[in-house]
Amino acid sequence: xxxxxxxxxxxxxxxxxxxxxxxxxxxxxxxxQFIGRVRDxxxxxxxxxxxxxxxxxxxxxxLTDIAQRACDRWQLQAVTIVHRIGPLxxxxxxxxxxxxxxxxxxxxxAAEAIMDFLKSEAPFWKREDxxxxxxxxxxxxxxxxxxxRWN
Length: 151
Known about the structure:
Elements (H helix, E strand, L loop, with lengths): L2 E7 L5 H9 L6 E8 L3 E2 L2 E2 L2 E6 L3 H16 L2 E9 L1 E3 L4 E9 L2 H18 L2 E7 L2 E4 L4 H6 L5
Parallel strand pairs: 1-6
Antiparallel strand pairs: 2-8, 3-4, 5-7, 5-9, 6-8, 9-10
Helix pairs in contact: 2-3
């Protein structure tokens, strides 16, 4: 049974602490961390701030389901998903996906799949602010298409 940690929070996360939580385990041969960050540009427009909103309770349930599906498919000892909400500035961390497995191929594939599912299934809404105003970020067809690899 894999150790699954899910957090949705406004505060920043500590990569070293997340790694250290698993580093002493002798049943883990690989730990993969993916960190998503706020860019200062999107679709050719500057970004001065991004605000992430979600449905409390429902979001954590969906993230847990995504993590469990990864555990069912790959040999994982642990999955951590930390997603931030609220106002964020360019260069701020948005999301951490950390997977741990006996072998690297399982950890890498699971981390990539989890990110694809987060981009398409997780109930987050992003608003980007720039000098001209603000806009809600629409889902990208490429994110939905990426899910086909995992079906």
